[in-house]
Amino acid sequence: MVVLLRFVCILTWFIPVHAYADLRLPALFSDGMVLQQNASVAFWGWTTPFDEITIRTDWGLREEKATADSTGRWFVRIPTPSAGGPYEIKVSGVGDAIVLKQVLIGEVWLCSGQSNMEFPLGFQGRWKTGVFDYEKEIKAASHANIRMFQVKRHTAATPQTDVNGKWEYCEPEFADNFSAVAYYFAKELAAKTAYPIGIIHASYGGTAIESWMRKEVFYDDITRYANIREQVSELSNWEQKHVGRNAPVKYPTVLYNGMIAPLAPFTMRGIAWYQGESNSDRPKEYRHLFPALIESWRNEWKAILPFYYVQIAPHAQKGPLIREAQLLTLKQVSHTGMAVITDAADSLDIHPRDKKTPGNRLARLALANVYQIEGVCPSGPIYDTMRIAGRKIELSFKYAEGLHANGGALTEFEICGADRVFVKANAIIEQDIIVVSSSEVNQPIAVRFAWKNFPRPNLYNEAGLPASPFRTDNWEW
Fold this sequence. Notes:
By secondary structure, the chain is of the alpha/beta class. The chain has two domains: about 15-380, Rossmann fold (3-Layer(aba) Sandwich); about 380-470, no CATH class. The protein is about 25% helix and about 25% strand. The strands form five sheets. Strands 1, 3, 4, 6, 7, 8, 9, 10, 11, 12 and 13 form an eleven-stranded mixed beta sheet that branches. A four-stranded antiparallel beta sheet has the order 14-15-20-19, with no helix packed on it. Strands 18-17-21-23 form a four-stranded antiparallel beta sheet. Strand 6 and strand 7 form a beta hairpin. It is globular. The N and C termini lie far apart (about 95 Å).
């Protein structure tokens, strides 16, 4: 008997033992999540290499299967129905299973940027002073069909595979920490579409756009970004000396690596962006960086995602050139939209407390362009063309229906002649055209509108939306 037991033990020793790894999902795939409706949504995770994974949903009888690769990562796409829920999803591996509960099917948007996107609904001290009437707003913030995934701040020297965060329900106990702009954006979308809305919120105050961009962008164009490539090299050297530590946020790529790359390719409808203040002293670079960011994120998701953004608010220390860079991006990059907030600014506070205005105007862009809601005008007047007519210049605009001055005569128009000296101009509205002139300029060549750090323009269209600042010239800065 002893000999037999020894034989069995020896035999067992030589039988290969399968080493199981825990079945794991990204943080995005968790209880309370929102999945994009009517789509083939990306679904992935990790397990033992080469194991088979089965996904079952209770909105249909169909099973989806995936096989893990040599690293243990598996990927599959799951067809989703029209908006609804809550549902359950069961992910099964070899000897392990995860059940996701309270899953909604609806519309998913990524909201990202710097401090004005991070700015919370409630008061949290320092610059996080909360929106106007935040106590009342939070008390009423009970919306069963809105959920927000809060991506925890994280910097990294190389692209990560997951984030730290969780889905939170839109209830007063959680809403005080919601991004205020994202909250108003989601609230308006939910109200007008009746769909569940899922927001992935990934923002970090005081950050430049370079931190949100992938490394490859800076090497695709060798004639540009030389100074940024030097910083990327510095980051690489820093990482070698500080392995495992969070990278300083000042470096390019670190927020893309830590907060954006791990989200892809999670299926979503589009992106809302609010950033630019930290690049306002380098507006000429921003003219190239901003379109490059949009293109690179779309490449990451392999989709022409609608990209809607807020033109930064006027401020005593922020000049007009950064707003022009954002306006030029609107004109150059397809499927973009810009929310103008010249009427929601604070000359001394870079974090205006009015976050309902930018949130609602971002929602307008989506409602008009993505959801095709009838009667929703997406934008205020956007300068289009000019024509010199003797001593006057005639300006035409997009979204010009119902042009009017909000209180008194039109303000903030300037005109110049060949001397390029701009003087205050007289501007009048003739149907959908604005005619600009000055007794001081006999032969005008250019017009500027709201071209200062903190203008007070009053040109609106019939939807009550303000015109973007602009200039008709393109003289070197």
